[in-house]
Amino acid sequence: MKYGVVMRTDIDLRTLPTLAYETEQAGWDGFFIWDGFLGPNPAVLLATVAMQTHRIRFGTMLTPPSRRRPWDLASEAATLDQLSNGRVILPFGLGAAEDLGFASVGEVTDRKLRAQLLDESIDILRGLWRGTPLTFDGNHYHIHGATLSVTPVQSPSIPIWVVGAWSREKSMRRVLRCDGIIPTKMTPDGSVGAC
Questions:
Q1: Which pTM does this prediction carry?
Q2: How far apart (Å, rounded) are the C-alpha atoms in residues 164 and 145?
């Protein structure tokens, strides 16, 4: 069993690298930060974590790929993986339906559509991380012969953890394609509850 810390980002951000260092020194295994709407840039914050620590794994908790472009996520994650010598984990999910970070800026709010964007994003990230030309024609994203100039240290790819709702077959199929699960349960009205 491994243990991690989830750190909020509504703190004095200059203390974050020290907190990550102290978390590592205390023997914890993971250090995760919030990836919230209009909050601090998680890639920049995690770069400071990468440079201040040597053993601990780290990532966001959690990133909804439908709010980001998959090629940008692929580049950010591969860069962080290089800076940290292979310690990045990418926890992904749809994002909370009530999160104003979707509707208030015109992002996709429909859960089914966000799930499709998540699935395509995972395929694109893994394809780009190979460091060879990628052609991808999905329902939402199209890439023609693009090659990422930086690839992850971790092989075959950076671990991707996804939110998995036990009661949803499609959600659990996504979990089986990925490297880890963030367990949750869906209530009859479609909202998410903790396990």
A1: 0.88
A2: 32
